[in-house]
Amino acid sequence: MDISGPIEGIVLFQGVPPEKIKFLISQSIVRKFKPGDIVIGEDDPIRSFYVVISGQLKLYRSSVDGKEQTLHLLGPGDPFGLCTAFATESFPANAMAIVESSVLLIPGTVIEETARREPAILFNIIQILSQRLKDSMELIESLALKEIPGRLASFLCQLLPEESADKKARVELTISQRELSKVLGATPEALSRALRKMANDGILSTAGRIITILDRKALIQLAEGE
């Protein structure tokens, strides 16, 4: 499987010389996963660095009573497992394939060795970790302070294309509504009720995984808690 192209386009490796990227690839392996496969489990003693090459994964935590909270959705080019590569010996969450996916596994020692010689990787990692921290803080705020319609509105606002506020916008979900409910910390039934209410209020309309935003201003106000 030729992955040099996809790797060179990944933010993590921006500014890294091509020969170093080839070295990383030569020391790595690609694994394929089917929907529902666990890529890495919570507390697994693995010290590797992971990059999604194709497909989609989710990072999630499960409670003792079986409740699941999705922490992050990962697509092509997204790295994960930074903590296992540099610090801890266990992974703090579960990573599961949502669709057929391929993942690049780079040994932590290889990343460490390369990072010492190529500071660009360290700067890129800092940027990625900073964005993940920001995303995590926003998730905590949303779960703690917002009702389900507000959480849904915030999620949709992040997917909106940049265009004038008076235009309709189409958003295509890459996950099922059941998976979306896990992202929002809601039950599928509660999510369905929120979608129906927002449709009745003229904010949006739905057709399968396609959501059409009819009133962008109202959506933003709902996301902001107004």
Characterization of this structure:
By secondary structure, this protein is an alpha+beta fold. The chain folds into 2 domains: 4-144, Sandwich (Jelly Rolls); 147-223, Orthogonal Bundle (Arc Repressor Mutant, subunit A). Helices cover 43% and strands 23% of the residues. The chain is built from 9 helices and 11 strands. It has helices spanning 4-8, 18-26, 82-86, 108-117, 119-145, 148-159, 177-184, 188-200, 216-223, and strands at residues 29-33, 38-40, 48-54, 57-62, 68-74, 79-80, 94-97, 101-107, 169-172, 204-207, 210-213. The strands form 3 sheets. The chain has a 4-stranded antiparallel sheet with strand order 1-8-3-6. Strand 4 (57-62) and strand 5 form a beta hairpin. Helix 4 packs across helix 5, helix 6 packs across helix 9 (216-223) and helix 7 crosses helix 8.
CATH superfamily of the largest domain: Jelly Rolls
* Number of helices, counting only DSSP H or I runs of 4 residues or more: 9
Largest sheet: 4 strands, antiparallel
Count of the separate structural domains: 2
Name of the top-level CATH class of the largest domain: Mainly Beta
Arithmetic mean pLDDT? 87
| Shape, per Cα inertia axes | elongated
- Share of β-strand residues: 15-25%
**Alpha carbon gyration radius:** 19 Å
DSSP strand count: 11
Reported by name, the CATH topology of the largest domain is: Jelly Rolls
Uncertain ranges: none
The structural class is alpha+beta
CATH architecture of the largest domain: Sandwich
Order of helices and strands: HHEEEEEEHEEHHHEHHEEH
Strand order of the largest sheet: 1-8-3-6
- Secondary structure: helix percent: 40-55%
- Distance from first to last alpha carbon: 50 Å
